[in-house]
Amino acid sequence: MDFIDPHIHMVSRTTDDYETLARMGCVAISEPAFWAGFDRGSADGFRDYFEQLTAVEPRRAAQFGIEHHCWLCINAKEAENVSLSREVISMIPEFLDRPGVLGIGEIGLNKNTKNEATIFLEHLDLAVEHDQLILIHTPHLEDKYQGTRMILDMLCDDSRINPDRVLVDHVEEHTIGEVLDRGFWAGMTLYPVTKCTPDRAADMIERFGGERLLANSAGDWGVSKPTAIPDLIFQMRRRGYDEALIRRVVYDNPAEFFAKSGKFVQPVR
């Protein structure tokens, strides 16, 4: 089955991972801007990173027939540095017209601090000003529930934000319901240990259905598995799920959401 990975950090993966993904049915990915494994010290570091996301990675992916798309921001881990964050935000419009850029993301909170919230709101201003889709990062572990509630409240308090143009990622059992109830799209990140295993994701699909629900691997610097979506497909088939529901979660929903950007074209196979 063809699938789309809507959140995977390929700058942290080898070219062999692209080949493996292609062999397993991946036809398109989107790569949110995120942490580089260390805190960058200047806006020029982000300029080079955005060049990598918008020019270099699409060429790597194209070698294996995979469409590469991306999102731009300064991530929540580095948003504590407000002055650097504002420099980066002011630079982002230079890249928004590039073909593969889908929107602003992944923005959100890390430790739920005041500075993080300030920069999150300034990213929202940027997204609204340039009519961009928004991809949200929700915090990990003990900070997730509070951080997710804070993020949803900030989004819902801004009358300019259309929930149908926002994907809230890294949902888990205790946050998915409110995300969907408030009209947002929800992403389940499939990690071997933290976040959400394929088995837990299948449980959530069974509970909430397939509407506005996506699955991704994240595939970043930590312990992660870029082929986690095929694992979910296997798990859903093992449970006897209808093929149309499986396709909806792993292909149709990301394609529908990304199409709202005006830049996503469904891959031709």
UniProtKB/TrEMBL annotation:
Molecular-function GO term, any one: metal ion binding
One Pfam family matching this protein: TatD_DNase
Keywords: Hydrolase, Metal-binding
Coiled coil region boundaries: none
Cross-referenced SUPFAM superfamilies: Metallo-dependent hydrolases
Keyword Protease found: no
Family recorded in the similarity comment: Belongs to the metallo-dependent hydrolases superfamily.
This protein's name: TatD related DNase
Species: Allorhodopirellula solitaria
Organism ancestry: Bacteria, Pseudomonadati, Planctomycetota, Planctomycetia, Pirellulales
